[in-house]
Write a structure and sequence with these properties.
By secondary structure, the chain is an alpha/beta fold. It is built from five helices and seven strands, in the order βααββαβαββαβ.
Length: about 200
Protein backbone atom coordinates (compact mmCIF):
# COMPACT_ATOMS: atom_id res chain seq x y z
CA UNK A 1 0.00 0.00 0.00
CA UNK A 2 1.81 3.09 -1.22
CA UNK A 3 -1.00 5.49 -0.53
CA UNK A 4 -2.91 6.19 2.65
CA UNK A 5 -5.83 7.24 0.45
CA UNK A 6 -8.21 4.95 -1.41
CA UNK A 7 -11.06 5.35 -3.87
CA UNK A 8 -13.84 2.78 -3.96
CA UNK A 9 -15.52 2.59 -7.37
CA UNK A 10 -18.94 0.96 -7.35
CA UNK A 11 -19.80 -0.40 -10.80
CA UNK A 12 -22.36 -2.74 -12.24
CA UNK A 13 -21.25 -5.49 -14.58
CA UNK A 14 -22.24 -3.98 -17.94
CA UNK A 15 -24.92 -6.45 -19.06
CA UNK A 16 -27.89 -5.81 -21.31
CA UNK A 17 -31.07 -5.17 -19.34
CA UNK A 18 -29.27 -4.87 -15.98
CA UNK A 19 -27.90 -1.32 -16.09
CA UNK A 20 -29.54 2.14 -16.13
CA UNK A 21 -32.98 0.55 -15.91
CA UNK A 22 -34.79 3.87 -15.39
CA UNK A 23 -33.07 5.26 -18.44
CA UNK A 24 -33.87 2.11 -20.42
CA UNK A 25 -37.60 2.71 -19.98
CA UNK A 26 -37.44 5.57 -22.46
CA UNK A 27 -34.40 4.82 -24.62
CA UNK A 28 -34.33 1.00 -24.60
CA UNK A 29 -31.88 -1.49 -23.11
CA UNK A 30 -29.26 -1.33 -25.87
CA UNK A 31 -28.91 2.45 -25.76
CA UNK A 32 -28.93 2.34 -21.93
CA UNK A 33 -26.05 -0.16 -21.97
CA UNK A 34 -24.16 2.05 -24.44
CA UNK A 35 -24.65 5.07 -22.12
CA UNK A 36 -23.53 3.05 -19.12
CA UNK A 37 -20.33 2.02 -20.89
CA UNK A 38 -19.70 5.68 -21.76
CA UNK A 39 -20.14 6.54 -18.08
CA UNK A 40 -17.66 3.82 -17.10
CA UNK A 41 -15.13 5.26 -19.58
CA UNK A 42 -15.65 8.73 -18.12
CA UNK A 43 -15.22 7.41 -14.58
CA UNK A 44 -12.01 5.63 -15.53
CA UNK A 45 -10.66 8.83 -17.13
CA UNK A 46 -11.31 10.99 -14.08
CA UNK A 47 -10.05 8.59 -11.40
CA UNK A 48 -6.85 7.56 -13.19
CA UNK A 49 -4.89 10.78 -12.40
CA UNK A 50 -6.08 11.00 -8.77
CA UNK A 51 -3.35 10.26 -6.24
CA UNK A 52 -5.00 7.40 -4.36
CA UNK A 53 -5.20 3.62 -4.61
CA UNK A 54 -8.22 2.52 -6.62
CA UNK A 55 -10.55 -0.38 -5.90
CA UNK A 56 -13.24 -1.40 -8.37
CA UNK A 57 -16.12 -3.22 -6.69
CA UNK A 58 -18.18 -5.13 -9.27
CA UNK A 59 -21.89 -5.78 -8.65
CA UNK A 60 -21.77 -9.50 -9.57
CA UNK A 61 -18.37 -10.86 -10.51
CA UNK A 62 -14.86 -9.73 -11.35
CA UNK A 63 -14.12 -9.34 -15.05
CA UNK A 64 -10.47 -10.19 -15.64
CA UNK A 65 -9.94 -8.55 -19.02
CA UNK A 66 -11.76 -5.21 -19.12
CA UNK A 67 -11.07 -1.48 -19.04
CA UNK A 68 -10.00 -1.61 -15.36
CA UNK A 69 -6.47 -2.85 -15.91
CA UNK A 70 -5.04 -4.85 -13.06
CA UNK A 71 -1.91 -2.69 -12.86
CA UNK A 72 -3.88 0.39 -11.82
CA UNK A 73 -7.04 -1.00 -10.22
CA UNK A 74 -7.58 -3.58 -7.50
CA UNK A 75 -10.67 -5.69 -8.21
CA UNK A 76 -13.26 -6.81 -5.69
CA UNK A 77 -16.94 -7.83 -5.54
CA UNK A 78 -19.76 -6.12 -3.67
CA UNK A 79 -21.52 -8.10 -0.92
CA UNK A 80 -24.90 -7.44 0.68
CA UNK A 81 -28.60 -7.23 -0.02
CA UNK A 82 -29.00 -3.49 -0.42
CA UNK A 83 -26.82 -0.58 -1.46
CA UNK A 84 -26.20 0.54 2.14
CA UNK A 85 -24.93 -2.86 3.22
CA UNK A 86 -22.75 -3.20 0.12
CA UNK A 87 -21.18 0.22 0.65
CA UNK A 88 -20.66 -0.41 4.37
CA UNK A 89 -18.90 -3.72 3.72
CA UNK A 90 -16.69 -2.12 1.05
CA UNK A 91 -15.64 0.73 3.36
CA UNK A 92 -15.00 -1.70 6.20
CA UNK A 93 -12.87 -3.92 3.95
CA UNK A 94 -10.74 -1.01 2.70
CA UNK A 95 -10.23 0.52 6.16
CA UNK A 96 -9.14 -2.92 7.40
CA UNK A 97 -6.32 -2.76 4.83
CA UNK A 98 -4.91 0.25 6.70
CA UNK A 99 -6.14 3.20 4.62
CA UNK A 100 -6.68 6.47 6.46
CA UNK A 101 -9.06 8.29 4.13
CA UNK A 102 -11.49 6.57 1.80
CA UNK A 103 -13.96 7.96 -0.75
CA UNK A 104 -16.61 6.04 -2.64
CA UNK A 105 -18.04 7.04 -6.01
CA UNK A 106 -20.44 5.40 -8.43
CA UNK A 107 -20.37 5.68 -12.20
CA UNK A 108 -23.51 7.74 -12.83
CA UNK A 109 -22.11 11.24 -12.55
CA UNK A 110 -20.90 12.70 -15.85
CA UNK A 111 -20.12 16.05 -14.19
CA UNK A 112 -17.65 14.53 -11.72
CA UNK A 113 -14.01 15.52 -12.36
CA UNK A 114 -10.57 14.56 -11.06
CA UNK A 115 -10.37 17.96 -9.34
CA UNK A 116 -13.55 17.34 -7.36
CA UNK A 117 -12.25 13.97 -6.15
CA UNK A 118 -8.93 15.61 -5.16
CA UNK A 119 -10.94 18.29 -3.36
CA UNK A 120 -12.77 15.57 -1.42
CA UNK A 121 -9.50 14.10 -0.14
CA UNK A 122 -8.30 17.61 0.71
CA UNK A 123 -11.51 18.17 2.72
CA UNK A 124 -10.77 14.99 4.70
CA UNK A 125 -7.57 16.56 5.98
CA UNK A 126 -9.64 18.97 8.09
CA UNK A 127 -13.02 17.16 8.31
CA UNK A 128 -14.05 13.69 9.43
CA UNK A 129 -16.39 13.19 6.47
CA UNK A 130 -17.10 14.67 3.04
CA UNK A 131 -20.15 14.36 0.78
CA UNK A 132 -21.01 15.34 -2.78
CA UNK A 133 -24.76 15.97 -3.15
CA UNK A 134 -26.74 15.34 -6.33
CA UNK A 135 -29.70 17.33 -7.60
CA UNK A 136 -32.00 14.32 -7.09
CA UNK A 137 -31.37 14.24 -3.33
CA UNK A 138 -28.71 11.55 -3.25
CA UNK A 139 -24.93 11.80 -3.34
CA UNK A 140 -22.23 11.01 -5.91
CA UNK A 141 -19.35 10.80 -3.42
CA UNK A 142 -18.99 9.95 0.24
CA UNK A 143 -15.69 10.04 2.08
CA UNK A 144 -14.55 9.42 5.65
CA UNK A 145 -11.42 8.96 7.75
CA UNK A 146 -12.79 6.04 9.71
CA UNK A 147 -15.68 3.63 9.35
CA UNK A 148 -19.07 4.91 10.56
CA UNK A 149 -21.63 2.18 9.94
CA UNK A 150 -24.60 4.35 10.94
CA UNK A 151 -24.43 6.43 7.75
CA UNK A 152 -25.31 3.33 5.70
CA UNK A 153 -28.29 2.29 7.80
CA UNK A 154 -31.98 3.26 7.78
CA UNK A 155 -31.93 4.86 4.33
CA UNK A 156 -34.41 4.54 1.50
CA UNK A 157 -31.81 4.19 -1.24
CA UNK A 158 -32.35 5.80 -4.66
CA UNK A 159 -34.77 8.37 -3.22
CA UNK A 160 -34.54 12.12 -2.64
CA UNK A 161 -34.04 11.74 1.14
CA UNK A 162 -30.64 10.00 1.10
CA UNK A 163 -28.45 13.11 1.23
CA UNK A 164 -30.42 14.83 4.01
CA UNK A 165 -30.67 11.63 6.05
CA UNK A 166 -26.89 11.20 5.78
CA UNK A 167 -26.29 14.79 6.93
CA UNK A 168 -28.58 14.09 9.90
CA UNK A 169 -26.40 11.07 10.75
CA UNK A 170 -23.25 13.23 10.59
CA UNK A 171 -24.81 15.70 13.02
CA UNK A 172 -26.10 13.01 15.38
CA UNK A 173 -22.63 11.42 15.45
CA UNK A 174 -20.99 14.85 15.94
CA UNK A 175 -18.89 14.34 12.80
CA UNK A 176 -17.44 17.37 11.04
CA UNK A 177 -18.29 17.32 7.33
CA UNK A 178 -17.62 19.20 4.12
CA UNK A 179 -20.02 19.59 1.18
CA UNK A 180 -18.75 19.41 -2.39
CA UNK A 181 -20.41 21.00 -5.44
CA UNK A 182 -23.91 19.76 -6.20
CA UNK A 183 -23.86 17.70 -9.42
CA UNK A 184 -26.25 15.90 -11.73
CA UNK A 185 -26.58 12.12 -11.73
CA UNK A 186 -27.65 10.49 -14.97
CA UNK A 187 -30.80 8.52 -14.19
CA UNK A 188 -33.26 9.56 -16.88
CA UNK A 189 -33.15 10.68 -20.51
CA UNK A 190 -33.41 14.37 -19.58
CA UNK A 191 -30.14 14.07 -17.61
CA UNK A 192 -28.05 13.02 -20.61
CA UNK A 193 -25.38 15.33 -22.01
CA UNK A 194 -26.49 16.69 -25.39
CA UNK A 195 -23.83 14.84 -27.39
CA UNK A 196 -24.93 11.49 -25.93
CA UNK A 197 -28.58 11.78 -26.91
Amino acid sequence: MQNKKAIILFTKNPELGKVKTRLAKTIGNEKALYIYKKLLEHTQEIVTPVRADKFVFYSDSITKEDQWNAGSFYKKVQHGDDLGTRMAKAFQEIFCLGYESVCIIGSDCYELTSDIIEKAFLALETNETVIGPTFDGGYYLLGMNQFHETVFKNKTWSTDSVYMDTITDFKNLNLSFSNLNKLLDIDEEKDLPEHWK
